[in-house]
Amino acid sequence: METIETRKPVLFILFVLIIQLSFPFGSAHGDTRYVSDMLILNLRDRPGKGYKVITRLYSNTPVEVLGESGRYFRVRTEDVKEGWVAKQYINSKPPKSLIFSRLEKVINRLNKKVEDLEKLNISSGNRDKIMTSKRKQERLQTENDRLKKEIESLQQKSVLPKDSVILWCFFVGACMFFVGLIVGKLTGRKKKKIFY
User: Three-state secondary structure along the chain?
Assistant: First the structure.
């Protein structure tokens, strides 16, 4: 008769096998990569050449890598289609054409800013006033910093440390005691001796 104790290891192994079979193609990476300079790449439902083509991916298409199995990546496209593609055609660096288009947008934005500044056309008189006020501001800031440092040093000098205050009080108390002792000896009355 088979007991529950002998079934536990079998159940555990069966559980582990089910988990392994649920995720047969490696761990998920989750990083964005791009289809390299290939004209058309097939997105298939399984890793390998002989499987059904889900869709076609063109150059510079971004895909999210979900897993890996041998020479294939499991990927998700921007339109949420998942499938397998050959690793050799997937690149982690953005394609040059995408970089160029981004740089063109930045250049256009900077050119627009330059045009806007030229429209403002700050006159030379205004520039001189601005420069003069900037110099004044810098001088005032320097003077302000110097005065702050001076205030800090004066505050540090005027505040006695807590330990020195305690020592000062002890010293004054000791002096008072000795002065009282000396005054008492000098002016002291003589004690009468009483014999019994």
Answer: CCCHHHHHHHHHHHHHHHHHHHCCCCCCCCCEEEECCCCEEEEECCCCCCCCEEEEEECCCEEEEEEEECCEEEEEECCCCEEEEEHHHEECCCCHHHHHHHHHHHHHHHHHHHHHHHHHCCCHHHHHHHHHHHHHHHHHHHHHHHHHHHHHHHHHHHCCCHHHHHHHHHHHHHHHHHHHHHHHHHHCCCCCCCCC
Q: Which residues contact 71 (CB under 8 A, 6 or more apart)?
A: 47, 86, 87, 88
pLDDT band of residue 24 (cuts 50, 70, 90) is: very low
Strands 72-77 and 62-69: antiparallel
Dihedral class, residue 143 (left if φ above 0, else alpha if ψ from -120 to 50, else beta) = alpha
Contact 67, 27 (CB under 8 A): yes
User: Cα–Cα distance between 166 and 173 in angstroms, integer?
Assistant: 11
CA distance 181 to 189: 13
Q: Strand 90-91 vs strand 32-35: parallel, antiparallel, or unpaired? A: antiparallel
pLDDT band for position 36 (cuts 50, 70, 90): low
What is the rounded CA–CA span in Å between residue 92 and residue 84? 16
43 burial level (CB within 10 Å; 0-12, 13-18, 19+) = buried
